[in-house]
Specification:
The complex is a heterodimer.
Chain A: H1 2-27, H2 31-57, H3 64-97, H4 113-121
Chain B: H1 2-19, H2 24-41, H3 53-86, E1 97-102, H4 108-120, E2 124-130, E3 133-138, H5 141-144, H6 150-158, H7 166-173
Antiparallel strand pairs in B: 1-3, 2-3
Classes of the chains: A mainly alpha, B mainly alpha.
């Protein structure tokens, strides 16, 4: 009962963060800032939703099957923690290599220009 | 040898969890597969074999501690994105910049961990790593200030070797 309640709370929180990520994806100005919304929002919200499922599986302790599903869901959480930031980073890098110019703030610098100059020199 | 046993145990636990069947037939299959994989490719994981096993377990403990801290950072970073995305005035606070810094971390795994941690903490994403230099996209100057090296110190502390093993361990980690 309590576990179910916690599970529902976790899933609901995950959905709220998904909403934030989706709205950010639409509102943010350029590719790179959108990746902030997509990359981070996805990580935590999928974690919360999957954790919610995992706790839901534990709701009655009658047999080992539920525990195995719980452990499998935890393994999915671990994979999300690993793969989500990695793919975000890969997309950022690919975007930069593809020549997408980042939108910069009022006095925001772009330290990456030095790599571009270096590449032209080589 | 100890490392092979550790790898075998890890593989076996993974097998048991993913298979979910504990009868003699499937467990035997698991033992055979885990032993085979350990035999042909146990040298692929765990650099720096000269570190004693006890130190390795202490590392794992500190790693768990670090991951919990990281999880908390992920929560903060998401609250942050939520605020930026949903508040009407949020967009005026999006003033992106790309900053660079040099790291002192040595092994690939430490660098990978730092890059992923930067991506998961509020307002910053690693764009590129060239050698020891990190290029980080920050959503505003304010968040770029968060890259003051605290995370790097935490990661270095996780993998800090016990005093006696230190000279050879750092040598092994540089390549």
């Amino acid at each position: 009962m309590i576990l179910d309640l916690v599970a529902i709370l976790l899933i609901a929180a995950g959905l709220v963060f998904f909403l934030g990520a989706a709205v950010g994806l639409v509102r943010f100005p350029d590719f790179y800032t959108r990746m902030h919304a997509a990359g981070k929002g996805d990580t935590l919200s999928s974690l919360l939703v999957v954790l919610g499922f995992a706790l839901h599986e534990l709701r009655h302790f009658d047999g080992s099957a539920d525990v195995v599903v719980f452990l499998k869901l935890l393994a999915i959480c671990a994979f999300i923690m690993l793969t989500s930031p990695t793919s975000t980073h890969a997309l950022m890098d690919a975007g930069y290599e593809d020549g997408i110019e980042p939108v910069l703030g009022e006095d925001g610098e772009n330290a990456l220009t030095e790599t571009r100059n270096r590449r032209l020199k080589d | 040898m100890l490392y092979r046993l550790l790898i075998f145990a890890l593989l076996m636990v993974t097998w048991l969890v993913f298979s979910g069947l504990f009868d003699v037939f499937h467990t035997t299959l698991g033992v055979l597969s885990a032993a085979f994989v350990t035999w042909i490719s146990s040298d692929l994981v765990f650099e720096k074999r000269e570190i004693p096993m006890a130190a390795r377990f202490r590392q794992a403990g500190r790693m768990v501690h670090y991951l919990l801290w990281l999880l908390w950072q992920v929560v903060l970073s998401n609250i942050d994105i939520l605020k930026l995305a949903l508040s009407p005035s949020g967009l005026s606070r999006v003033q992106p910049c790309i900053v660079k810094f040099d790291t002192t971390l040595k092994t690939d795994f430490e660098k990978f961990l730092l890059a992923n941690s930067i991506t998961l903490t509020p307002g910053t994403i690693t764009v590129k790593i060239l050698g020891d230099r990190y290029y980080v996209h920050a959503i505003s100057e304010h968040f770029a200030g968060g890259l003051d090296g605290e995370m790097e110190r935490r990661i270095a502390a996780v993998f800090a070797d016990p005093a006696p093993a230190k000279p050879e361990a750092t040598e092994g980690g540089t390549d």
